[in-house]
Amino acid sequence: MRSTYLAAAMLALEFTVFAAALPEGVRRVKVLNYPDCFELANADTKVTLCHQVGGRVLEYAHQGKNALYLDPREEKWGTPGGPKAPASAGRFDIGPEYLIPKRDALWAGEWAAEATSPRAVRLTSKPDEATGVQLIRNFRLAATGTHLACEQIIKNVSQETKYWTHWSRTFAVHGGIGVIPQTPDTRRYPNGFVMYNQGAEHSIILRPTDPNVRLRGNFLEVLGPTRQPKLGFDSNAGWFAYVMPHDQAFVKRYPSPKDGVYPEIAGLTLCFWYPQATQVPACELEPHGPRQPIAPGASVSFIEDWFLLPHKFPAAGEQIDLAKLAAQVDAAFR
């Protein structure tokens, strides 16, 4: 009996020490069928990270409201008949889209995960032979509020210079309104955006019109799903907002240098992919980074700063107060 008690006590001690070894605001949790995910948390914001499939953010929630679309089919990941390579929620990638080779190790492979400091975790991919790079993603949640810094590092592990770029592919909840500030001095598109026709023969519509895209003041608004879901924008404002039906604005801030080389086919700096909910019940929010040469052994870094701001979703017949939203964003960035 005594030996059994001591064994149980030692096990409890080991668990306590393991838990105590994690930095403040970090713990291990199970999400859907993913064990040992890292969770970052402060008083009212929670972030959970998936290292099992592609190094993603599964949850970015303020006061219990998740801004990300997480496919419920991922509940069956790792089970017979379950999805083999699911990829919903807070996804990141590298591009350009139409030039980069298939990269399963980066997109859907298992990554390493480690806590690095209070409310901070690093996810690291395996080296990928197809692209010649390894990806490192650092996530840090602020001590208060909703600010989440998301850094992607592209490390060249090959023997030749690489030119891959940052490509964010975040699935936010469906039904929101996108707000993209315009930068007239760097305008390239006649209507402020282009539309991709991704049919049998892909093409780009240079002067698109759509009832769900409008210019109001100095902002383009994407009011809902568009007739072709992929939209490209030429804004160098370095931020946009996506006002969601649960009365929060998902804001991304990121570097968008005006003299940068943006190697996507249309030279876009930002994309939305906004399908009908019956296709995918999400809106994809996609900042694109500029191209930089990455010498063998060298790395480049790109940081997205995420915020969730309280903002009332407009009722039928109403519209977003764009000046108020811009002021909220400006205050969050200070």
Polypeptide structure, described:
The protein is mainly beta and 334 residues long. The chain has one domain (2-333): Beta-galactosidase, Chain A, domain 5. Helix content is 11%, strand content 40%. It is built from three helices and 22 strands. The strands form three sheets. The protein has a ten-stranded antiparallel sheet. A seven-stranded antiparallel sheet has the order 6-11-21-20-17-13-14, with no helix packed on it. β15 and β16 (219-222) form a beta hairpin. The longest helix is centred in the N-terminal third of the chain and has 20 residues, at 2-21. The radius of gyration is 21 Å and the shape is globular. 40% of the residues are buried.
Strand content: 35-45%
Task: Please give the share of residues in helix.
Answer: 10-25%
Strand order of the largest sheet: 7-8-9-10-22-19-18-12-16-15
What is the CA-based Rg, rounded?
21 Å
Characterize the biggest β-sheet. 10 strands, antiparallel
Helix count from the secondary structure assignment: 3
**What general outline do the C-alpha atoms trace?**
globular
The top-level CATH class is Mainly Beta
Mean pLDDT: 93
Low-confidence stretches: 1-19
